[in-house]
Write a structure and sequence with these properties.
The chain has 220 residues and is an alpha+beta fold. The chain is built from three helices and 14 strands. It folds into two domains: 10-48; 62-217, Glucose Permease (Domain IIA). The protein has an eight-stranded antiparallel β-sheet, with no helix packed on it. A three-stranded antiparallel β-sheet has the order 1-14-12, with no helix packed on it. It has a three-stranded antiparallel β-sheet with strand order 4-10-8, with no helix packed on it.
């Protein structure tokens, strides 16, 4: 997982430095229009890779959003890493959202599974099965009497062609820890055991990674 609190994640600097460097060189050579374009592009990329601090909810029942964005769909479904009926919360991230992903609950990473796929529009539910994705399976520590596991899937979109995962099998996570990002527009899905949680969001809601509560665990 990423522990750095720098305002811009390290993955962004490979784009930012060349853009700003070229912009400064072009400016010194008198190519003002092109230079300003490069500098503005560098500033936008820096904005895209921003890494804000978040106040993580302390409620032990809270399951927080794994990403910033808009809740695109909520449905009953299944994921092979979980048993029983499940609920999936799909979150669409535009290029203007923070793209750092966070763990929805505290626990241990049981698996990290990468799957190749296509690059359909990330706001479409079809992206769940068709698109390139990376799924993180977390055996959670919650206020529920039974162990609760969750799956966070980072899904590439039409423009997003690079999934970054900072966590590995065996890592111990705290709720809201940074676990990765998807570059330039994407979709993140959270799978939860349906009978163990009460979903707190609805389609169309705007959520913040690590801060917004998307579900609460039930007590038996």
């Amino acid at each position: 997982m990423l522990t750095s609190k720098l305002p811009i994640v390290r993955d962004g600097w490979i784009y930012i430095i060349p853009l700003i460097g070229v912009g400064i060189i072009l400016l010194s050579l008198g190519y003002q229009a092109t230079a300003l374009f490069c500098l503005a592009s560098g500033a936008f990329v820096a904005f895209f890779f921003r890494n804000p601090e978040r106040e993580i909810p302390s409620d032990p029942k809270a399951i927080v959003s794994p990403a910033d964005g808009k809740v695109a769909d909520i449905c009953q479904t299944s994921h092979p890493e979980l048993t029983g009926p499940q609920v999936r919360v799909g979150i669409f991230l535009s290029i203007f959202n923070v793209h750092v992903n966070r763990t929805p609950l505290a626990g241990v990473v049981k698996a990290v599974e990468y799957h190749k796929g296509s690059f359909k529009a990330a706001f479409s539910p079809e992206a769940s099965t068709a698109n390139e994705q990376n799924c993180i399976v977390i055996s959670g520590e919650t206020d529920a009497s039974k162990p609760l596991s969750a799956v966070v899937c980072q899904i590439a979109g039409l423009l997003a062609r690079r999934i970054v995962c900072w966590t590995h099998k065996g890592d111990t996570l705290q709720r809201g820890d940074r676990i990765g990002l998807i570059k330039f527009g994407s979709r993140v899905e959270l799978y939860l055991p349906a009978q163990m949680v009460d979903v707190q969001v609805k389609v169309g809601d705007r959520v913040k990674g690590g801060r917004s509560i998307v579900a609460l665990t039930k007590k038996d």
